[in-house]
Amino acid sequence: MKNSRPPRKLRNRHERRASARPAFARLAFDFSAFACSVVVFVCFLVFFAVSCGYVGASGEKRLTIGYIGWTENIANSALIEVLAEEELGYDVELELADLQPIFEGVSSGEYDAFLDVWLPAHQALMDETDGGVVLSEEPWYLDETEFGIAVPDYMDVRSLEDLNESEATMITGIEPGTVLMERINDTVIPEYDLDLVLVESSTPAMLAELERAYARKEPIVFLGWSPHWMNLRYEFHYLEDPKGTTRGITDPARLHSAYRTGLEDDDPMAYALLEAMKLNEDQVAEIELEIVEAGDPKEGVRLWLEDNRDVVEPWLDAARAAEGG
User: Fold this and answer.
1) I need a labelling partner for 304 at 20 to 30 A (CA). Which of 35, 75, 99, 290 fits?
2) What homologous superfamily does CATH list for 61-143+253-324?
């Protein structure tokens, strides 16, 4: 940078003029100049902090991720949290919210990212952001998803048409308002004239009931999906739907991440880490199961990382290279 000091002769002229003023006038002038300098310096620091992805007096890099209570989203969000904090020096904040507020939050910049966009199921929510959300270039989940009405393999039932002949009296569901829950109630049960009752519940409650029934080999009809740790713990199959009553909801989906506009430019390290994240069905299920057994997402992730450093090292390399580039 060029020397900003004025030539000595001009500076001396200023000094002579200042010496001719009363002392209090010189003091007022000097204080005013000092105050202006402080304001300019503070503004520079604020600009530097924002542009480099830093906030607050601690000087830590910040990353805010919105997530929903789905097991795969808890798993991949916790995984990124641990890697970003313990390997890259970030201060990561995870905020639990409902699906629509998360898309709105990413669009407004309240969240930097959301790591569980199911397409095409979430396309309408993406469209509502009017381009305020940037989708990952590729899906982070490497395998095909599955979603549907399922039964354990020890039940001799293969189709929704056969459910009335089974010993099951209910379909153990998950949270009310889920699209498949609504479709079961409005379409599946009437179309197949099922005697079974759909029971609204929660994902943890459904899994607890599945665990109880499976241990006793009792009949149970439940909602299954992949990726999820249930696929490692239980042997089950999805029921055929010859009338196509769940078509469009149970079709395979692509799982992407979503970022706020400008994240790639503002924080290339975080962006590169999120873009590099790739997991297959077994890896997601293993992380979820470690979380369940540990009782804490971050602790479960750390346990999984003990035997899977080779999976995440390329992600970390990409993040560090992005910062250096």
Assistant:
1) 99
2) Periplasmic binding protein-like II (3.40.190.10)
